[in-house]
Structures are given as C-alpha cells and as structure tokens.
Amino acid sequence: MMLPSMANLVHFVFLIFVSHFLHATSNQIKESYVIYMGSFSQNRNPEAIQAAHLQILSSVIPSEEQERVYLTQSYHHVFEGFSAMLTEKEAAQLSGHSEVVSVFHDRFLQLHTTRSWDFLETESGLRSQRLNRRASNDVIIGIIDTGIWPESPSFNDAGLGEVPSRWKGVCMEGSDFKKTDCNRKLIGARYYNNLAESTQPPTNKSQIPEITSFGSPRDSVGHGTHTSSTAAGSIVTNASYYGLAQGVAKGGSPSSRIAMYKACSLGGCAGSTVLKAIDDAINDGVDIISISIGMSSIFQSDFLSDPIAVGAFHANQKGVLVVCSGGNDGPDPFTVVNSAPWILTVAASSIDRAFQSTIVLGNGSVLKGSAINFSNLSRYEQHPLVFGADVAAEFTPVSEASNCYPGSLDDDKTAGKIVVCVDTDPTVSRKVKKLVAEGARAKGLILIDEVEKGVPFDSGSFPFSQLSNDAGAQILQYINSTKKPTATILPTEDFKEFKPAPVVAYFSARGPGGLTEAILKPDIMAPGVSILAASIPAVDIGAVPEGKKPSDFAIKSGTSMACPHVAGAAAFVRSAHPRWSPSMIRSALMTTAITVNNLGKPLTSSTGSDANYHDMGAGEISPLRALSPGLVFETTVDDYLHFLCYYGYKNQIIRKISGTNFSCSFSPSPQLITNINYPSISIAQLDSKKVVIVSRTATNVGPSNATYIASVDAPDGLMVKVSPDRLVFNRRGMKASYEITFSAMDANKGYRFGSVMWSDGAHVVRTVFAVNVI
Questions:
Q1: Residue of 77, 112, 223, 614 marked catalytic
Q2: What pTM was estimated for this model as a whole?
Q3: Does 614 lie in the same domain as 518?
Q4: What distance in Å separates the CA atoms of residue 476 and residue 469, rounded to the nearest whole number?
Q5: Is 219 assigned a catalytic role?
Q6: Can you give the residue range of the structural domain that contains 238?
C-alpha cells in the first residue's frame, strides 16, 4: 500500500473539511417550505388547527431558536397545512411526520404573460343573442394574480343586482385601496405580501394567532387587471389602445362578479401565497378560479408538490372549477404545465386581427411588418439604414452587434439611423433590443425574426417593426446593393378579418404532459395573442404617445390572456347550467371546440403546419356551442382518486388528501390512467402487436329521447373501433358507456391523432385522442 505524500494528505484533509463545512452550512440555511397535510378536519376550528401546526413546527426547531416558530402561511379552510422558514434537515424531519402528506420548496411561480369575444362568437356560427338572454349575475370568478385597478371602466357595476348572499369574502383596505373601491362587479379583494403573511406564535396559550398583511389589492403590474377584465369585464364602448383595436371591450361573462386575490408581483408569485389564495377563494364562495401563472416547464413538480395542483384538487372537491394557463415555453413538446387532470389547462391562439407597421425602403419597396408602435415618422421622411453588424462598437463581435446585444452598437455610427438586427440568439429579448437601439440614439429598429413575427411587440413611441426571414433578406440585400440605403417605419395600423385565424401561438406550451402522458394536455385553446383589455395607467417613459393621456387599456399576449377567456366562457356556461359540476363544464367546452379556421381549413401552428391535439388540446373554445353540448363526460372526485392510485400514491396518502376512507382497488398502473372518464383520450404506449381498450361514460344533457351514432376520424394505419356504435337515451341525465379499441398493426411510430364523434343530428360530440405507437 502506497502512503500519501504530506501535500496530498493535507489536500485530502482540506477537502473533507470543506465537505463537512458545506454540508453543515446547507443544514443551517433557512428557506421557505410548504407543509401540506391533506383535507380539512371538520371537527376542529381554524384557531385549533393553527395551534396544532405551531406545535408540529416547534417539534423540529431547536429550543434555542423558538423565535422561528411561526407560520408564514396557514391553510385551514378547505385543506390543511402551513408554510414556514426551515432548514433542509428540519424539512426532512417534517416530511416523516404522520400527519404530513408532502413537504416541498416554496418556489416562485411565473406570470404567463375586444375583438376576441366577437371573433369567438363569429367562429361558432351561432347568433350571440343567446348570450345576453341566458346570462346570470350570480357567478363569481376568483382571479389569482397581481391585483386590480378598480377605477377601470371595465369594473363598472351599472345594471348589476345585489351581491350574491352566499358571498363570504372581504374587500381588504390598503393605503391606496378603500372598501368603497369594491362594488357589485368587483365584490372582493384580498392581498398577500410576496414573502407570505405572518402568523406569529401566541404570547400566551389563550391568545389566538393573528394574521397581519401588508400592501394593497391595487395592481402595480397590469397583469391582474388585464386578466380580470378579459374574464368578466363590463361592456365598455369606444375602447382602444391609443386608437388601435377600437371597438367594444367586454369580458366573456360581463354579468359575472370578480373577486381579486393579489398573490403576485412583477417578479412572480410565491407558491405558498398562491396556495393560501386558493384556500381563501374556495372558502369565500367563488364558482370559478382563474390562474394565469405556473411553474417553469423545466422544474415541474409531482402533483402533491405543486401548490396549484394541490389547491385545485380541493377546489374540485368543493365544486369549484380551476382554469389555468398552460405556459409560454412552446413550441417544444413536453412544455405544458398545470397539467393535473382536475385542472382545465389552456393553450393560446391568435384572432382575426393583425397589427401592421409598414416599412418603406428608399427604392420604393414596401414591406409589411408586425408591431405596435406610435412612430412619428412619415412615408416621405427617409432615414439612413444600417445593419447592426456594420455599426458595431469597438472590439464587439459581429454576431453580438447583429443581435443588438447591450453595449454592442457604436453610438456615433448609429445615431439618427434606422438599425436592422436579427434574432439568432433568443437570450436577448425584443424589449432589450429596442432599448439597445434607443440607447444608441437610433431613429428606429427593424427586427428580422421569423418565430415571433405573429406576436406584435409594443415599442411605444419608438419606431419599430418586425419582419419574417424572407422579407428580412430583401432588406439586407437592399443594404448591400446600395451606397446610401434609406428607410422609414410607419405607425401601426390594425386590420380586422385577418386570415387564417385562429392559429396556435408559437409560445404556447405543448403536450404531451411531462408528469403523465396518459392524460391529454393542454385541454383547450383560446385567444391569447394581442388581446385588448383593461390595464393600469402606463408610467414608463415613451410608453404613452406624445399628446395622449395614459390608456385605460393595453394589448398583451400570452397563455395568461388565454386562461381568462376560458374562465369567462366557463362562467357563461355555468350561468346557464348552475347545477353542472366543474368537469361537466370542462367537457362541454372541450367536446364542442372548433378545429377549423376562418378559411374552413384545419387549424395550423405558427409555422403553417397542421396543428395537432398536443398543440391546441381539443381545439378553439366556442362558448355558444358549449351551452348545448348534447352529451358530457363527467369526471368525478373518485375518478381523480383512482388517478392518484394508478399514478402510484399510497392509500394512506390518498385518504389524507380526500378526507375519506377511499381505498385503491388496483395496484399502481400508469396504463389505467387512460380509462379515467376524461373528455379526451391519450394512450402513452400502443405496441403495434397489441390492442388497447378504453372505456368512457357519457351523460345525456340534451333532449330526453336521443340516439347518438358514432363515427371515427383516424390516421392511416391506426384501427379504431367503437362498441357499441349507437347510444340510445330516453331521458335527460341518463348515462351510457362504450368502449374504443385501438390497434396499430400498420401505423408509423410516434404520436398519431384523431377523434371519435357522436351525433344525434343536432349535436356533434367530439372526443379527440392522441396515441403513441411504439
């Protein structure tokens, strides 16, 4: 055996010391954790629950640090748990506690950030008079977001009756928000500080812990105001964004009430706070919860370590539908988030309106770019045109200057000129590129970017326009072939009845779901590109055109904007069918969704290729059609509990979550998830030598006597057989079951998409499917 040298021995001892030091340090770092404890115990009051939670917390915190025994959040309305500052070791100890379901890091969640409703009504092919006749003002939509701007005309309560008597919520005051800011439209407003509310331990055993909040429900970001008005904003005539998108602004359910739960700031939302907001919203009496936020697709947690999934499960138990944005990490597959089967997950699409900013070159060529700008340049005012790489700052790589990197442009070479940049590096956003050009004293910016061209960027008063690669090549060719190239960028004009529409937004997150491929996600698609809705008054320099007052409205894009469209549509359906469960409303929206565009052709993605059901879910929502779906597929709480069984959670955990004595009837089997009574079908693996049989149960919500006949739309090589292929109903509410057999003897490998349709001559009930042939 060779003995180590003295130098090596010292190095070895040093490494051991560092390792021990780092380990000890990691065990001393305090971070926010959520401790989830399952369903609410009906036999204990909230004060007793909080006291018990403090006792549990004190059991893992050293006696000399008892000042740390406090709850940053307390969940005690419809489910139990709390959040607290803990070391990694303390969190691990709590995870083994007999009353604890899961312990997880309190991660920050991301914000997923008019004519859209008119467009949806037009696409439905039905007359919209039914909307006003059926609308009820008893539906309450809870919005969990960045707050609300109560002075917006979108929250005017004219014509609304008294607040529903079942409402138990509050209108919390702040330094800039009064109780009188709430009304019969905005009936409730809560706020939470982003580090979470503090529940301090009682100074004596008889004292009840008090919750102290800071801040205000007022929106300082604009996101929450925009989503709220999209879901249920009142009708506002002559609305526009500085003259663009002029028309009537309204929410999907203008007669519904809004309750705001301010759990987010510009930087995002603490998961523990979002969970608290869901707990409060359910207890307050909301019917629908709209959440335009979620985890990053890169760091998805399992269903019991995701605060939105946890809260949404309990909402479903209480009959509250939770609608969530699917995320903006598309167009890559496996990027969809908020994909639990008890969540209605939303993808984003465009509408039939385009915002065009024309570029006129010195040679007379006219190019149609995409942008929202209020340029003061005119067609007759030409300016020198340069490529970013040709005006690079000293010692700057050409690739950086061509991408408008910060500090990459030479101010002296750029001043007074219109700069052309490309977007070959996605790490530099359009906003940054615009600020770089503006900072370099450029007269304007033309961006060549194929991917984002369908989502216009708002550059305020700074002249900006974005072109496709083909149009961009024309500009670069012109620059290289002319001694003194010039151009101008004209202010934006909007064009209605743009075709094709809808188109799946490039940024919209795609399926299949990363946690399980046996549930088809996203569920449905709704407008999320260039949506005009209420916002806060602009405060950024250059955001308000010269001579204009700050606008009451803004144009935003994202699945954040698509989510409240579906929440509003769900409220509209619920107003007509108040006894329908959340899953019945979801089914009605999904099985009546539209799968063709305004050219009468299949929906496409932003690249022009046909969209599949991992891109758009069941298709584009059609709220009017969803009023009369004919049949619905009701997914019960027991279905969700079976899902947890199949997914692999133990009986003991499932009983704590559900608050029942439910027992799994089968061993864990991901393949069985496909049989959950869901309004779509996903088969994660179909061996070409085997068959998979899927069962579904339909409930008749149409005429009493109806006969539905099945038809199948399946890709070549995939055999799909429905048995029985005829369903006969003799009363409303009657259920009927059937089986679908899938085999893939001749199908190519990979995902294949199709649908099963049931029709009685008046209704078409479409169940879409995704089958992965292996």
A1: 223
A2: 0.90
A3: yes
A4: 10
A5: no
A6: 110-195+214-352+503-626
